[in-house]
UniProtKB/TrEMBL annotation:
Primary subcellular site in the record, as a coarse category: membrane
Name of the protein described by the UniProt record: Uncharacterized protein
Keyword Nucleotide-binding attributed: no
SMART domains to which the protein is assigned, alphabetical: Cyt-b5 (SM01117)
Origin: domain of life: Eukaryota
The species this protein was found in: Cirrhinus molitorella (mud carp)
Length: 155
């Protein structure tokens, strides 16, 4: 039992080391997972995701012209939609650069493209209904025509 605990501790340590290897000391880009960003969801430690980029906006909270409450609501999460909904100015977009700390991890971005695939699939099922309705209509018209012809022959 003791051994099991030990190995899980080792695995945890390895995970931490793996994350640290992305450190941008060499000028590379730092990647963060959604889970990592989510941990920074409080007023004195606030991160946001906007357009797959990660921002540490802790020091901006009090300065935000739209108030800190709206930012706190989005803290640790993807704020792309709400940021765009407000229709922020070019100035606001330029301000973002000051708080940039890295990119959202590629694995976490794929969820978006999976959604697109899903939409394409649902479009396919739409075309399935587009041919089914005319087919039923054609069969009905055919049946009515036959019935009409039989009626006329017998009379
Ligand atoms: C770090 C990210 C953000 C920056 C740098 C930023 C910056 C700004 C700036 C400069 C303004 C003044 C108006 C303008 O220039 O567009 C503003 C207004 C505002 N922002 Fe943000 N903002 C950010 C994120 C957000 C988010 C995530 C929300 C929504 C949840 C939000 C909601 C608002 C609102 C409601 C206003 C007030 C609009 C008004 O009174 O007309 N902002 N923001």
């Amino acid at each position: 039992m003791g051994e099991g605990t030990e190995s899980s501790v080792k695995r945890d340590n390895q995970d931490i080391k793996d994350e640290n290897t992305h450190a941008p000391e060499d000028g590379g880009v730092q990647y963060y997972t959604r889970a990592e960003v989510q941990a920074h969801n409080m007023i004195e430690d606030t991160w946001l995701i906007i357009h797959d980029k990660v921002y540490d906006i802790t020091r901006f909270m009090e300065e935000h012209p739209g108030g800190e409450e709206v930012l706190l609501e989005q803290a640790g999460a993807d704020a792309t939609e709400s940021f765009e909904d407000v229709g922020h100015s070019t100035d606001a977009r330029e301000m973002l650069q000051q708080y940039y700390i890295g990119e959202l991890h590629m694995d976490d971005r794929k969820k978006e493209s999976k959604k697109e695939v899903y939409i394409t699939t649902s479009k396919d099922s739409k075309s399935w209904t587009t041919w089914l309705i005319p087919t039923i209509a054609a069969v009905l018209v055919g049946a009515m025509y036959r019935y009409y012809m039989l009626e006329h022959r017998s009379s």
